């Protein structure tokens, strides 16, 4: 899940106040940072989680092959969202978000590379990704004292941790059971991410400037 972090919109660094030299106009990193720091990018990330959850819930009779493909695509798309969001961070804070983006992409590739894998393997991949992401999201919410709507962000992280623990600790015995379990958690995580996106939108509207919400932490 991609959630906001770093300085609030009101505390965005001012290039004219000294410090790091601003990126030249048209710089790809700056353009990606503006995109990744917008609340609409958070909204897109939330929809990338919510839509697959709805798909697997309304199609519970799908085979394990179909489920692995849907989950693999979800992980790849989410990894792409997280990679762009990394550029909205300060340069020294990008490594954790970049590693998590790579984790999502690798997990997606594993799901798509062998979609006929066992139920246990699919549960293990998704459970680990959610657990690690949820822990880092909760940590970001606690550590960033100036983060607006910290409670919402912390709730998103806590839900990710619970989702990862449940998937890892309660292995499904059939493709149907795994489909329902993963679909339910995807929908819940997607709804919480929607709440984070709209909360960040409200924070950006209260802040002066160009409407950029500030650096989102891919955690």
UniProtKB/TrEMBL annotation:
State the source organism's domain of life.
Bacteria
Sequence ranges of Pro residues compositional bias: 1-12
Classification via PANTHER family = PROTEIN HDED
Q: Which organism is it from?
A: Streptomyces cinereospinus
Q: Name one Pfam family in it.
A: DUF308
Q: Which residue ranges are recorded for the region named Disordered?
A: 1-27
List residues traversing the bilayer: 39-59, 66-88, 94-112, 119-140, 152-170, 182-200
Record protein name field:
HdeD family acid-resistance protein
Under InterPro entries, the record lists: Acid_resist_chaperone_HdeD, DUF308_memb
Keywords attached to this Swiss-Prot or TrEMBL record, sorted alphabetically, are:
Membrane, Transmembrane, Transmembrane helix
């Amino acid at each position: 899940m991609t959630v906001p972090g770093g300085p609030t919109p009101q505390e965005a660094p001012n290039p004219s106040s000294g410090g790091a030299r601003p990126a030249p106009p048209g710089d790809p990193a700056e353009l990606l940072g503006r995109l990744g720091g917008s609340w609409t990018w958070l909204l897109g990330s939330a929809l990338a989680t919510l839509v697959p959850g709805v798909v697997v819930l309304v199609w519970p009779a799908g085979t394990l092959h179909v489920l692995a493909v849907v989950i693999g695509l979800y992980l790849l798309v989410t990894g792409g969202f997280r990679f762009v969001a990394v550029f909205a961070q300060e340069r020294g804070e990008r490594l954790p978000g970049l590693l998590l983006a790579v984790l999502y992409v690798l997990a997606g590739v594993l799901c798509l590379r062998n979609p006929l894998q066992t139920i246990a393997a699919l549960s293990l991949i998704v459970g680990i990704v959610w657990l690690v992401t949820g822990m880092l999201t909760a940590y970001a919410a606690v550590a960033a004292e100036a983060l607006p709507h910290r409670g919402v962000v912390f709730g998103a992280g806590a839900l990710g941790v619970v989702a990862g623990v449940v998937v890892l600790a309660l292995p499904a015995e059939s493709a149907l059971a795994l489909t329902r379990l993963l679909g339910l958690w995807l929908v819940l995580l997607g709804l919480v991410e929607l709440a984070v996106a709209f909360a960040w939108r409200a924070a950006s509207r209260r802040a002066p400037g160009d409407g950029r919400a500030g650096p989102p932490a891919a955690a």
